Each structure stands twice: as structure tokens, then as C-alpha cells.
Amino acid sequence: MRSPSVAGMATKNATKAPRPTFACGECGWTTSKWVGRCAECQAWGTVDETRPLRSVGRTVAVAPSAAATPITEVRSESAFSVSTGLGELDRVLGKGAVPGGVILLAGEPGIGKSTLLLDMAHRWAVAGRIVLYVSGEESAAQVRMRADRTGALTPSLLVAADTDLASILGTIEQLKPSLLIVDSVQTVGSGDVDGVPGGVTQVREVATAIIAAAKRHGIATVLVGHVTKDGSVAGPRVLEHLVDTVLYFEGDPSSRLRLLRAVKNRFGPVAEIGCFDLVDDGLVEVPDPTGLFVSRHDQPVPGTCLTVAMEGRRPLLAEVQALCVSTPNPSPRRTASGLDPARVAMGLAVLAKHCRVDLSKHDVYAATVGGARLVEPAIDLSVVVAAASSVFGRAAPGNLIAIGEVGLAGEVRPVRHVAERLHEAARLGIEQAIIPLGARNHMRANNGLAIHAVADVRSAIALLSR
């Protein structure tokens, strides 16, 4: 029997059609066969067949478009920051928007992203600079209605209701704006690639083209991005790598407070926050938001304790509340709102073990005031003090704050930025502070505060009986 030749086998393999691949339209996960649910993002009905990539030859080296330059000879004048007119936004960005820098702004629907950007565009245009606002979700008339309501009407603010990438790039080339806002990047599509607007391929192509135009013309650019159910930016993860800055606009729907947080910033600090108040006619900056996170009591109330949290580089006075209620259930509840549930449970366990506080027959509810979210370890001591205050029925002094990380052995550990926290507390009229014993060596002037340095949780709880 004649065996097939090597040439015949090679010809057969060469003519064999490539196997199809399937990709998720939400996160880009790929698989060799179709499935109803994405194994990466757990979304249903988002996996579709994709065209196989064609193999091309090796990339041939060509003459560079720009010669390499010593870094000492690179001109840095074009990398300066331009104020946006919003102090809180400038705080988060560093000093303002950088020409050629691209910002990705993400947030839940209805949180106020478009309102914030329209206010930014208005203040930028009032300074005599051209702004191009590309709206892919609203018509130009709808944007005008919102501008009427927020007082953002100015001739230098140009609005284009368009979702075609080629048309948007043509408008950019024609107008050469100094600020470009695209609301949102998931609504823009390109006819040169497959997929629907918002898909992985489309979002990558649109973002790459707009970023290239922004870098080429030195245009400060803001791209609005949708978020998924878990709060992350929808679309490919590469989108966050392509841009220079990633901002999240957050807030409790039941509260007017809105927080702007930077999670990536090539031109400024990371983890800085800006505070805004959502009112009927737009957003109002809140340069001193401390009072929003503290409730007002005529007399000290059991189950409450003040603390100072660090949001980025900004100290914020906040209030932690705890309520301990007797329950006949064999498994008492532990509920936390605005706090890390795991750290709350750990603090309660330390309180029961090292302070002999029996919580086995108590439901414990712990929460923050004003919708603040406090998750740093420096909040541990205030949670423990508030819980002990509720159990004993003895109120902590209203002019006292507690700062410190609680360890499993019952010790109170030092935390960062103690001096800044105490300075903010003194500025707001606080008179006493409980801090870790080890933090005393790293303090500067205590601003007139009565300092109680404690080594363990038992010493901190003992202060309640004074």
C-alpha cells in the first residue's frame, strides 16, 4: 500500500480551513467553541464567533519618523497642566488637564458624569478656548437643554451629536479644539472593523484612533466609559492602559454627595478624591466635605465614635456608629455599611477575646454617616470603641477621635499620616485623640489636643469609663 507523500500532506493541511474562534463581547475572553456564558465575566449571550486573524509576513524595518533625542534636549513646554476651572477636578488631576493627555471617566448611569463634563467644558470655553463636545447618547438639542439648566451656554462650546468615528475624526481635524469630550466611547463605531459599537474590537479601534488624534494635535481629551455590574470599566482592559488617567465618579444614589477618584494618573497623584454636591441645577464643589460625614448631636450618644480617614492625601473627619442589640438567635447577625465587613468582624472578635465583652447574644450593626466608605485599617479602633460604647451604654466624649489599626493579639498598631489627621481634627474643634502608642514618636506638634496613646484595645476601652 502506497503511503501519502509529504508534499501531499502539506498541501492538504494548507488548504484546510482554520478553526473558528469565539470571543466575549464584554471582556474579550476567547474560546475554541461556543458557550452560552462567558467564563471570565459571567455574562450571558455575549460570546460570538470571530474571524480568524490572517497570517502576515515579518515586519520590515523602515526609517524612523522621528529620530531619538536625548532626554535632556526634549522640550517640556507642551506637557504643562491647564486648569479646568473646577478646583476639585484640578485636585484629582494634579494641577489640571494636560494637552495631549487622555482621561477616561467612568461611573454608573445617572451619577452625574455628563453634568460634570458639561460644567468643565463651559468653564474651559469661557476662558476663550474651543471645546468640542461629542455626544453619542443624546441629541444636540438634549445637550442644549441640560446646558440651559446648568448655565453652561457659551459660543466657544461646540456640540456634535455623532457616532461615526470617521466623521468625528474629520470634525477634530477641521476645528482643532483644545478640549475634546466624547460621551461615550462605547457609542462610537468604526466601519473599518467588525462588531457593533461597544464591543471589544470597536472600543479598542475607536479609543486608539481618538488617542492618536489627541496626541498628534495636543488636545486634552476626556472619554466617558460605561461600567459593568461590578463597577469596573466596560470593554477591553486595554482601554485603561491606553489612556493617561482613569477617573471614577462615585456616589450613593440616595445621597447628593459625589466623589471623583483617580485610580491611574500619569501626570499627578493617585487615589486623590474630589467632592461634589449634586443639586437641581448641576454640581457644586465641596472643598471642605468633613461636615457631611458627621452627625450632629446635642449630647454624646452611646455607640458613636469619631475618626479621621485619609482619602488620598486629604484627611476627612468621619463618624462610625455601632448598634448592639440582644437577640435570641443562636447565630447573631454582623452587618456593616460603608465599612469592610471582614475588618468589622475581626474587631468584634478582638473585643470579645481581649476585653471580655460578650457579643455572642447580640446582633451588631456598624455603619458610617453620610454615605462615606471607610476601609483603611486606621478605622479599626473607632469601630471597636463604638461597639463597646453601645454594649456598655456609655457614650464616648463628643470631642474625641480614635485612630489606629487593631491586631488580632489586641494590640493597637501605628498608622500613616497621624500628624495630618490630628491637625485636621484640631482645626475642626476636636479636643482629645486616642492614637497608637508607637505613633507618638512620629508626631509633630499636637495642635493643643489631649493625646491618649494606648498600646492595646483594653486601654482604649478603659477611657470610656472616665
Fold and architecture overview:
With 466 residues, the chain is of the alpha/beta class. The protein has 3 domains: 33 residues; 207 residues, Rossmann fold, CATH 3.40.50.300; 174 residues, Ribosomal Protein S5, domain 2 (2-Layer Sandwich). The chain is built from 11 helices and 21 strands. The strands form 5 sheets. It has a 9-stranded mixed β-sheet, with helices on both faces. The relative contact order is 0.09. The mean pLDDT is 86.
Please count the helical segments. Answer: 11
CATH homologous superfamily title of the largest domain: P-loop containing nucleotide triphosphate hydrolases
CATH topology of the largest domain: Rossmann fold
The description of the largest β-sheet is:
9 strands, mixed
Q: Can you give keywords for this protein?
A:
single chain; alpha/beta; Rossmann fold; Ribosomal Protein S5, domain 2
Task: Reconstruct the topology from this structure.
Layout: H1 6-15, E1 21-24, E2 30-31, E3 47-50, H2 87-93, E4 102-107, H3 113-126, E5 131-135, H4 140-150, E6 157-161, H5 165-175, E7 179-183, H6 200-217, E8 220-225, H7 238-242, E9 245-250, E10 257-265, E11 273-279, E12 282-285, E13 304-311, E14 314-326, E15 334-337, H8 341-354, E16 362-368, H9 380-392, E17 400-402, E18 405-406, E19 412-413, H10 418-427, E20 432-436, E21 450-454, H11 457-462
Parallel strand pairs: 4-8, 4-9, 5-6, 5-7, 7-8, 15-16, 17-20, 20-21
Antiparallel strand pairs: 1-2, 1-3, 9-10, 10-11, 11-12, 13-14, 14-16, 18-19
